């Protein structure tokens, strides 16, 4: 492809992402639509200069008759660019929830698993400035707050994989212009015109707003302003966490009286950060569920939410992992357990699973200062049914358990969530 002057700003934006040190293998999620196809070509144009190897994947949801052909077209485009491509198939909708939401969730899961299997550092998605404006309008309808209305993150983790949105600053028209200039084709997804879908309704609403003099770009700017506000709130929350909370093993322990005195919005964010850090869940709990938790805390009652156990004590509020949420998790000693514990020990053939009732075989557990509920949900090393070690419960036997670097400490987590 011979690049021309109008391509320069597009390449600059997309390629700036590749300067990220540590990014040597990048995946691109290509649906075959205009945005992600343009992203693929732009990345292909600049990846060699940054010594980044590209791979691409298409999720075939199997929901439309033409979907396999679209995936094959992307595969052919990638072959022409010398980029390895894989089609990831979704094994269908079980009829629960909303089809679009289920398909999206499955897509992220499949892409994350692909990134893990291929050893990719991150996966690039083709979201654009138009998606920012459309999402803003869609979220208005859900009475979202700052977090929902702010511009989507351009760098985030989901299902253990890192995702990037290198085209977030570019408009859809600019990307399509690039494809047309170079005679590159793309597929138009017929669901983009299906008026039953929220995104299509949002596009229509944007046209109406534009008639009123409110351009999509203006809404995207509002979303950017809110993203700044969100970053400020996160900073305040993280600073507050440092003074009111401490991390004890895998628990977050918060000064209860002080929590009741701070601004409710910050107290709620602190609680949400603790729930997110302890559980590793990608999504926040629902508003009503959170309100139920706040009532329980005010009444001094223990509560479970989001795979966490929240226990108000005389002076502290403890957020720990709920035993029931990890009871059935078992991983080899070499892999992270519950996506956040790294256990080390001499025999990699052993299994890591929750300590549970094995606590009875840990004579020194009371000396650890950790509650029984925390220890039951902590990682232990097993040889079949035989307990070998429970590092957090004082039965180390040459083993150690530390928070996995991918989760980081609670205070760092609070800064970005
Ligand atoms: N079938 C697919 N296969 C591979 N990647 C896809 C597929 N569909 C979407 N993507 C990726 O996701 C990006 C955004 O697409 P779209 O807005 O349809 O997705 P979404 O998952 O609904 O987004 P959101 O994160 O806003 O919910 C695309 O540019 C592309 O990178």
Automatic annotation (TrEMBL):
Chain residues that bind ATP: 31-36
E.C. designation(s): 6.3.4.19
Any one cellular-component term (Gene Ontology): cytoplasm
Record keywords: ATP-binding, Cytoplasm, Ligase, Nucleotide-binding, tRNA processing
Class of this enzyme: ligase
Molecular function (Gene Ontology), one example: tRNA(Ile)-lysidine synthase activity
NCBIfam families the record matches: lysidine_TilS_N
Gene3D superfamilies documented for this protein: HUPs (3.40.50.620)
Subcellular location: Cytoplasm
GO terms, biological process: tRNA modification
Keyword tRNA processing set for record: yes
Function: Ligates lysine onto the cytidine present at position 34 of the AUA codon-specific tRNA(Ile) that contains the anticodon CAU, in an ATP-dependent manner. Cytidine is converted to lysidine, thus changing the amino acid specificity of the tRNA from methionine to isoleucine.
Every tRNA(Ile)-lysidine/2-thiocytidine synthase N-terminal domain range: 27-204
Domain of life: Bacteria
Organism: Maritimibacter fusiformis
Record InterPro entries: Rossmann-like_a/b/a_fold, TilS/TtcA_N, tRNA_Ile_lys_synt, tRNA_Ile_lys_synt_N
Gene name of the encoded protein: tilS
Protein name: tRNA(Ile)-lysidine synthase
Catalytic activity: cytidine(34) in tRNA(Ile2) + L-lysine + ATP = lysidine(34) in tRNA(Ile2) + AMP + diphosphate + H(+)
Domain text: The N-terminal region contains the highly conserved SGGXDS motif, predicted to be a P-loop motif involved in ATP binding.
Family assignment from sequence similarity: Belongs to the tRNA(Ile)-lysidine synthase family.
HAMAP family for this protein: tRNA_Ile_lys_synt (MF_01161)
């Amino acid at each position: 492809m011979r690049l021309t002057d109008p391509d320069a700003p597009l390449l600059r934006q997309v390629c700036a992402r590749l300067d990220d040190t540590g990014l040597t293998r990048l995946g691109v999620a290509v649906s075959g639509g205009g945005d992600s196809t343009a992203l693929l070509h732009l990345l292909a144009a600049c990846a060699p200069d940054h010594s980044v190897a590209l791979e691409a994947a298409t999720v075939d949801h199997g929901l439309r008759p033409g979907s396999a052909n679209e995936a094959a077209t992307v595969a052919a485009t990638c072959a022409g660019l010398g980029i390895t491509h894989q089609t990831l198939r979704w094994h269908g909708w079980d009829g629960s929830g909303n089809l679009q939401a289920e398909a999206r969730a499955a897509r992220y899961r499949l892409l994350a698993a692909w990134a893990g299997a291929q050893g990719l550092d991150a996966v690039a998605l083709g979201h654009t400035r138009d998606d920012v404006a459309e999402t803003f309008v869609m979220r208005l309808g859900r009475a979202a707050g700052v977090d929902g209305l702010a511009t989507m993150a351009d760098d985030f983790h989901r299902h253990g994989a890192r995702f990037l949105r290198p085209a977030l600053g570019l408009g859809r028209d600019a990307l399509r212009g690039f494809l047309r200039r170079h005679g590159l084709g793309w597929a138009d997804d017929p669901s983009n015109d299906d008026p039953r879908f929220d995104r299509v309704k949002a596009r229509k609403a944007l046209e109406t707003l534009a008639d009123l003099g409110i351009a999509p770009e203006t809404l995207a700017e509002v979303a950017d302003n809110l993203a700044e506000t969100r970053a400020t709130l996160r900073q305040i929350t993280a600073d507050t966490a440092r003074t009111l909370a401490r991390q004890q093993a895998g628990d977050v322990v918060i000064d209860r009286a002080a929590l009741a005195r701070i601004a409710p919005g910050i107290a709620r964010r602190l609680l949400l950060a603790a729930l997110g850090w302890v559980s590793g869940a990608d999504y926040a709990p629902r508003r009503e569920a959170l309100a139920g938790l706040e009532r329980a805390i005010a009444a001094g009652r223990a509560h479970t939410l989001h795979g966490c156990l929240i226990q108000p004590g005389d002076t502290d509020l403890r957020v720990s992992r709920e035993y029931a949420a990890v009871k059935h998790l078992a991983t080899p000693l070499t892999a992270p357990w519950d996506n956040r514990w790294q256990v080390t020990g001499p025999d990699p053939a052993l299994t890591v699973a929750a300590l549970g009732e094995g606590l009875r075989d840990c004579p020194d557990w009371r000396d650890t200062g950790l509650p029984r509920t925390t220890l039951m949900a902590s990682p232990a090393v097993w040889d079949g049914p035989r307990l070998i070690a429970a590092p957090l419960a004082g039965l180390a036997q040459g083993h150690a358990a530390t928070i996995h670097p991918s989760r980081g400490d609670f205070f760092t987590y609070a800064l970005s969530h």
